[in-house]
Amino acid sequence: MFERDPSVDVLVVGAGPAGLALAADLARYGVRCRVVESRPEPRPGARCPNMWRRTLYALGRLGLPSHTLRAQGVPMRSKVFHVAGRTAHISLLEDPDDPQWPLPLLIRQDHQEKLLSLLAARNGCRVQRGVTARVVAREEDCVRVELRARDGGTEQLRAAWLVAADGGDSSLREAAGFDWRVRRHEGISWWQVDTGFEGVELPPEREDLFHAPYRHVGMVPLAGGGHRTFLASATEDGTGTPAYADVERLAREVIGAATRLRHPRFLWWQTPREGRADSWRRGRVLLLGDAARVFPMPVHGLNTGVQDAANLAWKLAAVVLRQAETALLDTYETERRQVAEGLMTRGERVLYAGVSPDPEETLGPILDEGTPRVRTEPPVTYDAEPLTLRPRGSGQHSCAGGWAAPCRVHTPDGVCTVAALQTGGQWLVLSPAKTPLSVAHPLNPRLVTGAQLSCGDRPTIAVIRPDGYMGAEFPYRTGRPAERAVLAYLDRAAAGA
């Protein structure tokens, strides 16, 4: 492990949601972190406002209170599909007993980035805009970077770690020697715009999706009025630059002749694409968010980017603070690439379903059953060792590897959630024993005695990772056998092998 010699522990290049979430988390752990962003000002507009339940828990873990997030957003209670005169209402209520985040939330992306920038600064992380970064040299113990401001001023910086979070067109990715493969979905145009509507009824707190042959239009409501509207078409000229008149024409063709845009703003367009880096880490350079992978559906990029940051932050902090070996960082790509590949497949399927020549046939199961295959985000389970350890013979009955943040915990003080016990972003050991275990370790876990997760059907000792996933589950025991089992697992996690 290295000494903390460089001028900064971690330099994050890119001030989107993923980069800011990572920086805010690292700074909270005491890591000397800095963010630079080439854009002089944040991009305006809603862009991707859809925030899934797991993302909302990740933001809460960073220290963004739920009341602050709710004040900025609109809950999304349902999806409504409109196809050939038929409608299907799909509830997005995932857990009616979850008092914190039973539903997704819609928050404009520019507001997300403002909240995260303020949080990073409050945690002691400097965020600079209008600054570009160029890798000068990659050395054994650091990365040398030249920073250049818009006025021409330069600064030479030594960073123990460099995180490229500068988007799908990352300049740092190529400079650091990563290979990048792209597949474009030619023939499909994807447009997005913030706008109000006339001539169509759009009840609040729901997403409306209108489908016609070869195209569809979707709208999600925004706080303060209007909708973030996305349009996909296999009939438009993808080589041209669309205008607001083109958006209104397409909306009228799909929704109805009476449809009109009201005060449209922030038109954005692309040909959907998939991008994959050959690896997510080379030496002391790590890729995060769209710099590592690009999804055909923009909503997947934002949510998965914030969750990528939640996965990476505690691991990188443990390495920087000399609590863990560098090999722990290899589990970041192992775990999160698996998630990315699953979303690539799902995103492509959803993309082409939206431009189907026969949407009634394609969307038949949803229209007939009222149940989509996946309502918001697919479930995530981490199966790979060393970070997932299940009891022998437990098979499918073990919760290890699964997301535990919203799970209820019975404690001597009452019932609460894992997330409520983990507000500091630390490891958590839940033991049903009344006598405290001795589990002092460099990873500094928090021990809760007399605690039992409600998701199990038998008493177990559970070890929860800092990102809210269950790392290990052990049959209930007391004394030294229990302590040895927990400490051996933490040793494996810290070693990354």
How would you summarize the topology of this molecule?
Elements: E1 8-13, H1 17-28, E2 33-37, E3 50-51, H2 53-62, H3 66-72, E4 74-75, E5 78-83, E6 86-91, E7 105-106, H4 109-122, E8 126-129, E9 131-138, E10 143-149, E11 154-164, H5 171-175, E12 180-184, E13 189-198, E14 206-212, E15 215-221, E16 227-233, H6 244-255, E17 260-270, E18 273-277, E19 281-282, E20 285-287, E21 293-294, H7 298-320, H8 330-353, H9 359-362, H10 364-369, E22 408-411, E23 414-417, H11 418-421, E24 428-431, E25 446-449, E26 452-453, E27 460-464, E28 470-475, H12 479-495
Unreliable residue runs: none
Distance between the termini: 15 Å
Shape: globular
DSSP, total strands:
28
Number of helices in the DSSP assignment = 12
Task: Classify the oligomer.
Answer: single chain
User: Based on helices, strands and strand pairing, what is the structural class?
Assistant: alpha+beta
Strand content: 25-35%
User: Please, what is the CATH homologous superfamily of the domain at 8-74 and 106-181 and 274-339?
Assistant: FAD/NAD(P)-binding domain
Overall helicity: 25-40%
Largest sheet: 8 strands, mixed
In CATH, the topology of the domain at 8-74 and 106-181 and 274-339 is named FAD/NAD(P)-binding domain
On the 0-100 scale, what is the average pLDDT? 93
Task: Report the radius of gyration as a whole number of Å.
Answer: 23 Å
Would you identify the CATH architecture of the domain at 8-74 and 106-181 and 274-339?
A: 3-Layer(bba) Sandwich
Q: Class of the domain at 8-74 and 106-181 and 274-339, according to the CATH hierarchy?
A: Alpha Beta
